[in-house]
Amino acid sequence: MTIQKKLRIGTRGSPLALAQAYETRDRLIEDDQNTLTANDFEIIVIKTTGDQIQDRALSEVGGKGLFVKEIEESLLRGDIDIAVHSMKDMETTLPPNLVIDCILPREDPRDAFISAHGQSLDDLPEGSVVGTSSLRRQALILNKRPDLAVCIFRGAVDTRLRKLREGEADATLLAMAGLNRLGKTSVITHAMETDQMLPAVAQGAIGIERREDDTYMKELLEGINHIHSQQRVVAERSMLAELDGSCRTPIAGYSEILDDGNLVLWASLLSPDGKERFDVQGTALPEDGVELGNELGHKLREMAGTNFVAFQI
Fold it and tell me: Which end of the chain, N or C, is more open, meaning fewer C-beta atoms within 10 Å of its C-beta?
């Protein structure tokens, strides 16, 4: 497959976002169906509103869509050909005329515990402060350890690690996937298993967004789509969509495809203070992941009942 112009990949400018953009480029180059080289691509950095706000939680300023708004506008204008996203940053509803039908092989979905004051969350002394910008992590931490305090940690990975070194918090949680992609695994104190800290929906997954009518990019991206990762992400995001999930609601969701070929999905809904928690689990064929996600999301909403609105901040 040959191209007449450079393929423009849109991304945020953080080291992690750039690493994900280059991974996408490299996978397209390595796809045997293509004759592409590095010279056929241009990485275009787009500053988003979310990157410019570092002193407040996303739930206070408009949600995780702030990390993609300007990128999607560039894609719709035709300034870029594809956009590379961390799928956990994506709203469940995309703008008209944009689609994400390519998911790269999913990285480690777990959260990493990082601290010089204990080997795990359980080891932290009473009253310790944990820094995080995630409402999900805040609620899960307080559910497990109500004697701890949580403060806002915003910024790129290096910024959060610097804040930790400078004593702004006693511990923090970061995505294992990001640390792996940045080659920063040496900072990890403890990798938290998914039954200890249920991940964010689609954590560790990279999604490639394109214009719906761009059949050339559709064909190109089909060669690097990882079907099992896609099926898992679709199931998790359908659960989130059923709950109208955003960063204003503490929701966790994670799926796996078992050795018997079935997809199992775990999901949790919490109050922001962690005092209330509802958990569900279900199994289905991978191709029925949307229906399973919808079913579990509906169950969580029913379990929360009239308190559901109170879970949103």
Answer: N
